[in-house]
C-alpha cells in the first residue's frame, strides 16, 4: 500500500505541473461580462482498413468510430458565477471474424459549480456537483469449450455511477483556467444490485468483500458512501495557431478509508484544427481508483474526423 501511495504522490506532482505553468503564464484579459456564455462541439472520428484474401502483408479488416460531445454553459452576474459542462463520448471497434462489436470509449459526465466572488480577487466561495457514469453495457470476453466467443456483462448505465458534491473554494482566472478545492466532499457510488448479490453464505460474502467488492460496494449492497477531500482543475491553452491543449484533473481522498490512496482522473486533450470542420484529436486519460483496479488505467486515442462547433 505504501508503494501505491508513493506512486500516486509522484503522479500527482506530474499532473499539477501544467496547471502551475498555465497559471504563471496566464495573461490579463478583459473583465468578464454578465450573462450566459455557451459553447460546444460535436466530433466524429472514423477509421477503417480492409484486406482481401490475396493480401500477403498481413492485417485484419476492421473499423472503428468515436462520437463525442462537449457543451459548456456558464453564467455570471456580478460576483456570482455558475459554470456547467456536459461531456459524452462513445466509441466502438469491430475486427473481421470477431463476433461482437467492442466498446473503446464510453463516458457520460455532468459538472456544475456555483461560486460567489470574495471581494475583488480571483477567489470564490463555491459549491460543486459532479456526476459520471457510462451509457452502454460493458463486457468481459472469453471463449466457450467449442472456441466460440462469449461475453459477460460487468457494467452498464448507472452501474457504476459516481456522484460527488460539496462546498469549497474556487480560484478562477477565466473560463479556461480554474481550480476548485473542496475539503468536505460527499461521494456516493451506486451500482445495480445484480452485480453484488452473492446470497447469504458468509464465506462467499467475506471473499467478495476481501476482493474489494464491486467498485468498492460490498456484497448485497447497492451503494457506498464516502466522505473526503477533492480537487478539480481545468486549464485550456492555445499553444500555437489552430492547436489547443486542454487539461482536466480530478483528485479525491476518502477520509473514512485509506486516505493516502488518492483517486486520480486526468485527461489531456490535444486538438489540431485543419479547418472549420476537420480536426485531428489526441486524447490521453489516466485513472487511478483502487476501488476499481489496483493500478493505473490508461486510455489513449488519436484520430482525424469531423467536428462541428456551436
What features would you describe in this structure?
- The chain is mostly beta strands.
- Helices cover 11% and strands 60% of the residues.
- The protein contains two helices and 14 strands; from the N terminus they run αβββββββββαβββββ.
- The longest helix is centred in the N-terminal third of the chain and has 24 residues.
- The mean pLDDT is 89.
Q: Biggest β-sheet: count, sense, barrel?
A: 12 strands, antiparallel, barrel
Return the domain count.
Answer: 1
Order of helices and strands: HEEEEEEEEEHEEEEE
Question: Gyration radius, to the nearest Å?
Answer: 22 Å
The portion of residues forming beta strands comes to: over 45%
Order the strands across the largest sheet as they lie in space. 1-2-3-4-5-8-9-10-11-12-13-14
Number of helices: 2
Q: Short description, anyone?
A:
With about 300 residues, the protein is mainly β. The protein contains two helices and 14 strands, in the order H-E-E-E-E-E-E-E-E-E-H-E-E-E-E-E.
Question: What would the keywords be for this entry?
Answer:
mainly beta, 60% strand, two-stranded antiparallel sheet, single chain, 12-stranded antiparallel beta barrel, 310 residues, 11% helix
Task: List the topology elements.
Elements: H1 2-25, E1 35-49, E2 62-77, E3 80-95, E4 102-117, E5 123-133, E6 138-143, E7 149-155, E8 161-174, E9 177-190, H2 202-210, E10 223-240, E11 243-254, E12 263-273, E13 278-289, E14 293-309
Antiparallel strand pairs: 1-2, 1-14, 2-3, 3-4, 4-5, 5-8, 6-7, 8-9, 9-10, 10-11, 11-12, 12-13, 13-14
